[in-house]
Amino acid sequence: MTNVRRIWRHLLMPHWKVRQTFPRKALQAIERAIAAGEGNAIGQLCFVVEGALNWAGLLNGLTARERAIEVFAQQRVWDTEHNNGVLIYLLLADRSVEIVADRGIHRKVGEQEWDAVCRQMEAAFRRREYEAGVIAGVESIARHLQQHFPARSIGKNELSDKPVIL
C-alpha cells in the first residue's frame, strides 16, 4: 500500500522550497567544497538535490535509493575514467540522503562507510543545517577519494562541480 503521508509530503513540496533551502550562496559554497575535495584526488563528486518525486514515482513506490540510482545514470556519474564517481543525492521531501558510488571506489570503501556519511548528513539536516551537512558529506567522501585515488598530477575534471537541482 502506498504511504499517504509520503505522497502528501511530496505533493506539498514546492520547487521554490529547494531554492530556499539551498540559496545561491549555499550552492556556491558546496561547489567550492566539491572542487577542493577533488583537488587532491582523481575521483569525481556530484551533488544532486531533488525536491520531490513525480506522480509516477510516488504511485510506483519509488524509493530514494532507487531514484538515486536513476540519477546516477542520468548524470553519467558512472562515466569516469577510473570508475570512481560518487553521487550524493538528497530527496528533500523525504529528507533522505543516498550515496551511489561507482564500482572502483565502492570496492575500496564499502556500504558501511557510505551509510555513515549519509547518517551524518541527515543528522545535520534535522538541525536544518543543510549547507554545512552537505559540505561535511563532501569532505568525508573527498577523504576516501584522496586515500584511494590520490592525485598524481592535475587531472581533468570529468564531472561538473556545480550542484544540480532537479
Automatic annotation (TrEMBL):
Gene3D superfamilies: 3.10.310.50
Domain TPM: 21-143
Classification via InterPro entries: TPM_dom
Entries under PANTHER family matching the protein: BLL7265 PROTEIN (PTHR30373:SF8), UPF0603 PROTEIN YGCG (PTHR30373)
Name used for this protein in its record: TPM domain-containing protein
Originating organism: Pandoraea terrigena
